[in-house]
Amino acid sequence: MLRPSLRTVSEKDQDQLDLQALHRVRARLVARRTASINQIRTFLIEQGITVRSGLRALKNSFEAILEQRRGEISPRMRGILIGLYGDWLWLDKRIEDVSGEIEEISRTEENCANIMTIPEIAPMISTAMVAAVGKGEAFDRGRDFAAWVGLVPTQYSTGGRTILGRITKRGSRYLRMLFVQAAKVICKRCADDTFAA
Q1: Residue 168: pLDDT above 80?
Q2: Which domain holds residue 86?
């Protein structure tokens, strides 16, 4: 009653909660996969074996390293590395399954289809947005949504002079990460088009 203009958070329905759970499971699986890959790299470095950076480089050369460096790697360490590689492959499969389920939802959900009409907004971002804000009725403008996600600069305004600071980074870290990744793709595409011309 004291603040009639205060906006309340709308309650999430069961579909939004399920979708949000899928995104959280996928994020956890990706973090575990990254941890497994980093541990394999660390163990190989401890054995004096360095591999070019990047996921594909390690995946393509892993079996060749184990075969060519058989004398340098102890049988126990070899077993540990093979176990970690098995975890990595299992996590890849699991991430693929969860991602497929998210993409299937994005094709059937009307709100996701509307969001995906925006360039570079793929099923991951559209479903994450729908899971977080539903139809977005709580926001009057796009800037309100951007402020909620944490993608607007801090404002220090006084005496008719507006001073913009750094990005606030408040709000949904996961959505912000997805938006930043999409922006990087757009910037890279523009840079590639510039060099091609």
Answers
A1: no
A2: 14-109
